[in-house]
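Example record

The entry below shows one chain as it appears in the dataset: sequence first, then structure tokens.
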Amino acid sequence: MKLLRGLGGVVLGILTALLGTVLGILAAVLWLVGALLCVTVILIPLGIPVVRLANRLFGIARKLMHLP
């Protein structure tokens, strides 16, 4: 039984790290889109919230990839 719990913990850790990696990649792409929107002066009001959302996603991805 202990072996199954240990194996389950390892699998869960791998899955959360994988999810964190995918979320980090998504946040990077979203941050680049937000930065591109901020470069065009007219679209700054759209770019700033997108960059803030990307920063939040980076924080969540960092928490998911953190080892216990």
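Notes for this example: The chain has a mean pLDDT of 89. The chain has one domain: 2-65.
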